[in-house]
Design goal:
By secondary structure, the chain is mostly helical. It contains 8 helices and no strands. Helix 2 (26-48) runs parallel beside helix 4 and helix 7 runs antiparallel to helix 8. It starts with 11 loop residues before the first helix and ends with a helix. Keywords: Membrane, Transmembrane, Transmembrane helix.
Length: 202
């Protein structure tokens, strides 16, 4: 599917992508988006019907999370596709179990209390910025400061944890600044414009 010239993670990101593309295909991505959409639809339907929380969703959340952990421990081989699905990271089963966990947690009586904390809400608020900036930080680190910060490049778990902590801290810091000084003002301005248009139409 891809050229054999400089193919492999030893040739950097481009070489790694050549080896990875056959597995990170449209099926994998589409399944993830589809599962997320189905969970959102499920939650929207329950909200429209004013459905109450139930202990059965707590049970479902715990079972699905446990199954996801067991799946990772028994099926995932870093850097290689699953032998059964030929997809990375045990897709689509892992994504499906996490989707079930999130859907059940939102309708649970107790599990949601562990997830809906102030830090999680804050992280969800700036998550788009984290998504945009984290790889930019990783690229700078890997190319300028920590040359071994590549796929399977760091031999020491303590060094990996240190570098990863720096990446996470910097990415969250940039995302926070982006939210308060860029994203939030734009969203606020858009809402004001829409409210004015709505008032004018009424």
């Amino acid at each position: 599917m891809t050229s054999e010239f400089e193919k492999g993670w030893q040739f950097g990101l481009v070489g790694g992508a050549k080896a990875w593309i056959p597995y990170w295909n449209i099926d994998t991505f589409f399944t993830q988006f589809l599962l997320g959409s189905l969970v959102a639809l499920f939650l929207a339907d329950r909200k429209s019907r004013l459905a109450s929380s139930s202990i059965k969703f707590d049970i479902g959340a715990l079972i699905s999370l446990t199954a996801a952990i067991v799946l990772v421990l028994t099926r995932v081989t870093p850097g290689a596709p699953d032998s059964f699905t030929n997809q990375p990271y045990a897709a689509p089963w892992f994504s499906m179990l996490i989707a079930i966990f999130l859907g059940c947690s939102a309708s649970s009586m107790y599990v949601w209390r562990f997830l809906d904390n102030r830090f999680a809400v804050f992280l969800a608020t700036i998550s788009f910025g984290v998504y945009l900036w984290h790889y930019f930080v990783i690229s700078i680190f890997a190319n300028s400061y920590f040359k071994d910060f590549q796929y399977f490049g760091v031999g020491s778990i303590l060094r990996w944890a240190f570098i990863s902590s720096l990446v996470i801290t910097i990415a969250i810091s940039i995302a926070t600044l982006s939210w308060y000084f860029f994203e939030k003002p734009i969203i606020k301005q858009v809402k004001l414009i829409r409210n004015k248009q709505k008032a004018a139409n009424d």
